[in-house]
Amino acid sequence: MYKAAFLVLVIMFLVCIWRNMGRVLMNAVIRCLFCLICVYLCNGMIQYCGGNIAVKINEITVCVSTLLGISGVAGLYVLQLFFTIHG
To answer: Which residue ranges run through the membrane (predicted)?
Structure first.
């Protein structure tokens, strides 16, 4: 009896996760693209204003900006500024 109830609960859990998986993936893709556009525009604006700080777009910056959003993008620029000054 307990095994059947456990099996039903596991199946219900998997169905709920499967339904939301598309929404979660779409949200991550949208955040990733938005943050990449943000980094690209910020790099362009900084260079236009005469600055020498540029965050490179690679796997790590994509992951950080996707997970943390705009605050992650700002953090990337702060870290780049720190390492440019002390490097």
So the answer is: 5-22, 28-48, 60-83
